[in-house]
Amino acid sequence: MRMASASKGLLHSVRDAIALSVFALALSWPADATPASRPIMTSEGPVSGVQSHGVMQYLGIRYAEAPVGDHRWMPPVAPTQRHQLLQADHYRDACPQVSRYNLTEASEVEDCLYLNIAVPAAHPRDGRPRPVIFWIHGGAYVGGGANLYRLDHWAKRGDVVIVSINYRLGALGFLSHRALDGTSTGAFGLADQQAALRWVHHNIAGFGGDPSRVTIAGESAGAASVCALLAAPEQIGGLVARAIIQSAACDNPLRSTAAAEATGDQFAAAVGCDGADVLACLRRVPLPKILDVQTRLAAAALLTWAPSVGSKVLPRQPTEAVAQGLVHVPVMNGGTRDEMRLYVGYEVAAGHPYTLEDYRRGLSAYYGNFAPEVEAHYPPAQYSSPSTALGTALSDYGPGIPLANCTYLRFGRALSQHTTVYEYEFADRGAPPVMEDPGIELGAVHSAELPYFFPGFSNRSVWDGPPLGRQHDRLSDEMIDFWVSFARAGVPHVHGEPVWPRFKGGDSVYRFDAGPLRSFDADAAHQCDFWRALYPHNL
């Protein structure tokens, strides 16, 4: 998403985000863990885990060799066999990244291609191998890691196997350049995800999982990764049974590898590798310099390091895969009610007040000549602040914005022509805040649903987010039950709850809020008719 200069601050700054809470002490891992009783044999050798909270966890299992030295900017290499027992008892570091928004944690560990598995300690409730949820973290393809997600609650509540993974990020994961391996250029991080899926297919039965019932799921860049995986059936055929997309407009076009090579050339020149043997030079560049240059190049565009299309790993756009009828698995698709208020909140937290004039400048930056019409439709006087009004408009629709509800509906309609789709919206405006109070009404912002699946989620490995509270705990249980039902049988159905209809249009969207669950007309709620009139070729 290329941002107008007037609005760059929305994506690059936040002060004093999430404070540490005493709740972090209760979530320290693995304080009460005990060794798992039985080692599991994998294709590389035996693995022993830890047991806690009624769940066995196998943490930090290598699924590919370290992508360092000659393996830097190469497709992932299967790990070598070992004979000794692996004590898989702790999360490994996230892949290299800088801290963002004064909120997330930095990492300078290139040996990062590991996965984690959580399995309920009790026997399966139905006596069958458990369905598997394969979780892909978000972070705009430059941040995040598997160590941010506590897996035991979802595994135990849902009686499922949960897998979380790391994958290469930023320039190390998504650089496009003529000197790089042509099968994976621009998509090394996606190749990592595909390698992890193959590892799960070959090994998950040993952990009680059903390799024929693997659901790929992710949020934000993790959700967009799900779409990219679905766009390459040549790579994932037979590995995936269903897919869950949480907050990603998967029909926003990705750059071609050829177009992305312009950024690659800039990167190579900036790190001093625009001479004869570019690849050999790139492999010698110190990691801090790589992180510094990739961050500077991304200053003007949030998704500078998104995957590019044209390699064997990602041969086509997700929209092309859908139009060609290549996506056959059932899909759950949706997002949060107030997605973009998060980024407006970052700006306000950084000291930008968002007066009425700021609101109008923001509208002009995003909507150009349509700004007066948008202001008339979203008059700031009807909202708690001009910043809330801007965040609401952007959450409904913005050209090129991948976190907009009318865009989610657009993709759902296209997808529903070829496969079964269940559309949802997370709308709980009482959700625990994902950042310190910036002084505006945030609501159900981007990533607000994550603590409902992963207790203590806070964008940090210390899991120091606040507890949900009783009313939100109930909604958490309901959401997990629906997600697991979908992973188990391809249909999200929970006894005693209203039927979640198959998606046929904007009025058949399931809403998750603090009140009773129900279907509602998301198309009307997000003013999609208004946006279609302004942008008929986009929506």
Description:
With 539 residues, this protein is an alpha/beta fold. The chain folds into two domains: 1-11 and 334-484 and 510-539, no CATH class; 30-90 and 92-329, Alpha/Beta hydrolase fold, catalytic domain (Rossmann fold). Helices cover 30% and strands 14% of the residues. The chain contains 18 helices and 15 strands. Strands 1-4-5-7-9-8-10-11-12-13-14-15 form a twelve-stranded mixed β-sheet, sandwiched between helices. Strands 2-3-6 form a three-stranded mixed β-sheet, with no helix packed on it. α2 links the parallel β8 and β9. α11 (341-349) runs antiparallel to α14 (386-396) and α12 crosses α13. The protein starts with 22 loop residues before the first helix and ends in a 5-residue tail after the last helix.
Supply the key terms:
3-stranded mixed sheet, alpha/beta, 2 domains, single chain, 12-stranded mixed sheet, Rossmann fold, 18 helices, 15 strands, disordered N terminus, globular, 539 residues
